[in-house]
Structures are given as C-alpha cells and as structure tokens.
Amino acid sequence: MKRLATLLLAFVSVQVMAQDGRGFLEGMYGRYHGKWRKSLIFTQKTEKYRNDSLLGEETWYETMVYPKNFRIDFGKPDSGNCVIFRNDSAYIFRSHKLMKSRADTNELLYFLGGMYFASSYSEVYEKFRAFGIDPEKSYKRGGVTVLGVADSNAKETQLWIEEKSYNVVRLMRFDNGHRTDARFMHHKKVGKTRCETLVEFYEDGKLRQKEIYTELHANIDIPATMFSVNDPWGWHWAD
C-alpha cells in the first residue's frame, strides 16, 4: 500500500511539472501576443574567441522585422557583405553577390520575439516541439523556468526563461556529445518591451563569441526591400 502511494505521488508530481511547463509557455505567449515590438535595429560589437582568448572584433549592423525577416550587415550596409534570413531560408552575400542559400528556420528569432506573432498558443506549442523543446518537460531553478527537460542532469535541448519577465536567458543544445550554449543578458527596455544587450555563445564550455548591442531602436518602419534577395542594397529608409 505504501509503495502504491509513493508511485501515485510520483505520477502526480510529474503531471504537475508537465502542466506547469505548458501553462508557463501559454502565459509567456499571452503576455506579449499582439504587444511585441514590430521591428528592431541595433549596432553589434562582435568579439570572437578561441580557447577563451580574444581573436578579434567586428562591427555588425542588425535589422529585424518580426516574425521572420532578419538581416545582418557585416560592416557598413553598403559593404556588400550580409546575410538575409527570410521566412525559412538564409541568403549569404559577399561583395554584393549572392554566394549561397540554405534552409534556416532561425529558431533564435522565434524564441526572442517571433513566437508572439503566432495566431494561437497551440501553434507556438507545436513550433517549440518542432525545434526540439518539449513543453511537457520542465523544472524550476532560482526564478527561472527551464523548458524541454525535467531536471538539471538532462542533456536535451532546453530554453531557460525568467519567470517574472519572461525574458529568455539561455538556450542549450546537445548534439553528438557536444554542447552549445547561448546566454542572453543585460535586458533593457526598448520601446514597450525588453531586449537582451549582451549575448555569449559557448561550445563545450568554451567562449566562442560575445555580442554587445548598442543604439537599439524599436518599431522603426523598415522598407521591405531591405530583405530583397534580388537587390539587397536597393532599399531606402522611410521618411
């Protein structure tokens, strides 16, 4: 009888944890659906590392229109070097020429704002599962809800989210024995929503890239031609 009670208690605990994960994600979507910024531009100082030592620095200029358009100019926008993420594809340009394209769902853009443009919570739920994060699994640690895993020992894709603000603070993936780890920090208010201004990327515990964001502006009217694959430099800012 005691064994049965223990098993029932464990079952209930797992069910509550799963429900918390689903409920938390639904609350996250409900907080910002229809309220998220429509666009964001910023300047990014990019530091690249090897064995935790700084190799060099670059300045990138980034432009995004939620939920699916994102452009990074490596150097000044007229340099001819950029990548354009549009819908579920990425287009890489060098010296004003399209060098290659590839399928790319850009999960970070989705987690960091695109999700709030989904037509329903069920759409968000299924998208998270498609990205390998199962909202049925979750646990809490120090004011953060971790979605995708049931405890801190699991080596599965997981998204860490602050419980009060719903700021995404960490994304970890495990693949063939390797771990990638993105950390989102120093959130500041931009328009009516908050945005990370420091991001660090690690591979197997080693710092690979650090990004510092400045000159952030939200809800700017971005010309659609900025994401044109045929003429990425034919755009001009709206008056």
Structure report:
This protein has 239 residues and is an alpha+beta fold. It has a single domain, classed as Lipoprotein localisation LolA/LolB/LppX (outer membrane lipoprotein receptor (LolB), chain A), CATH 2.50.20.10. Helix content is 19%, strand content 43%. It contains 3 helices and 15 strands. The strands form 2 sheets. It has a 13-stranded antiparallel sheet with strand order 6-5-4-3-2-1-15-14-11-10-9-8-7, covered by helices on one side. The longest helix has 31 residues. It is globular, with a radius of gyration of 20 Å. About 7% of the residues have low confidence.
Structure summary:
With 239 residues, the chain is an alpha+beta fold. The protein has helices at 2-32, 107-111, 121-130, and strands at 39-50, 53-65, 69-74, 82-86, 89-94, 97-103, 138-141, 144-147, 158-162, 168-175, 178-185, 188-190, 193-195, 198-203, 206-218. The protein has one domain: Lipoprotein localisation LolA/LolB/LppX (outer membrane lipoprotein receptor (LolB), chain A, Clam).
Topology:
Layout: H1 2-32, E1 39-50, E2 53-65, E3 69-74, E4 82-86, E5 89-94, E6 97-103, H2 107-111, H3 121-130, E7 138-141, E8 144-147, E9 158-162, E10 168-175, E11 178-185, E12 188-190, E13 193-195, E14 198-203, E15 206-218
Antiparallel strand pairs: 1-2, 1-15, 2-3, 3-4, 4-5, 5-6, 7-8, 8-9, 9-10, 10-11, 11-14, 12-13, 14-15
